[in-house]
Amino acid sequence: MTQIVYQSRAAQPLTRRGYDELLRECRRRNAGDGITGLLVSDGLTFLQAFEGPTDAATACLARIASDRRHHSIVMIRKVDVPAREFGTFAMLGLLPGLAEASSFVDRTKEAVEDVYSPSLQALFIGYATLGRSKMPQLRSL
User: Mean per-residue pLDDT for 28-43?
Assistant: First the structure.
C-alpha cells in the first residue's frame, strides 16, 4: 500500500462547477482502482493525499502529473503504509465554498481526526488554517 501527498497550483482559479467535476472524476476512477484519499483546495491550490495498491497509486500520480488543470506539483510524501489512513473516502473533497473560513478549518479537522499520522493531520489542518484569511470566494459558474 502506497500513500502519496502532494501540493499544486491551479492553472486558473476554480469555479464550484469545476471543482465538483474534478471530484466526480476522481471518485469514479479511484473507486475502480482501490484508491482512497482527501483532496483539499482553497480555489487556487490543491493539497491531496491518496493511497492504494502501489501500481494503482503510481498510475494515479502519473494521471495527476499530466492533468492541465494544475501545475507546480510538489511531492510532500511518498511512503509505504501498512494500512489505509483515508480508508473511508473514495475521495473526500473539501473547499471553502460560501461558508466562513473557520468552517473550512473545522471540516478539515474532522476529515483528518482518524488519520494515524500526526504530521499528516498537521499538514492538512495547517493548510486550511494558514490559507483561510486569503481564500478567494469560489465563483459559482
Answer: 87
Give CA–CA dist 121/125, Å, rounded: 6
Looking up cell 502529473 gives 65
DSSP-based three-state secondary structure for 25: helix
> pLDDT, tens digit, for every residue of 56-76?
999 999 999 999 988 999 999
CB half-sphere exposure, 58, CA atoms < 13 A = 5
Within 10 angstroms of residue 38's Cβ, the number of other Cβ atoms is 23
Distance separating alpha carbons of residues 97 and 112, to the nearest angstrom: 19
Contact present, 124 and 6 (Cβ < 8 Å)? no
Give the count of alpha carbons within 13 A of 116, CB side only: 8
**Contacts of 123 by beta carbon, 8 Å cutoff, 6+ apart:** 5, 47, 76
- Percentages helix, strand, coil for the chain, rounded to the nearest 5? 40, 30, 30
Residue pLDDT, tens place only, 105-134: 888 888 898 888 899 999 999 888 876 444
Q: Which amino acid is at 48?
A: Q
d(CA 132, CA 94): 13
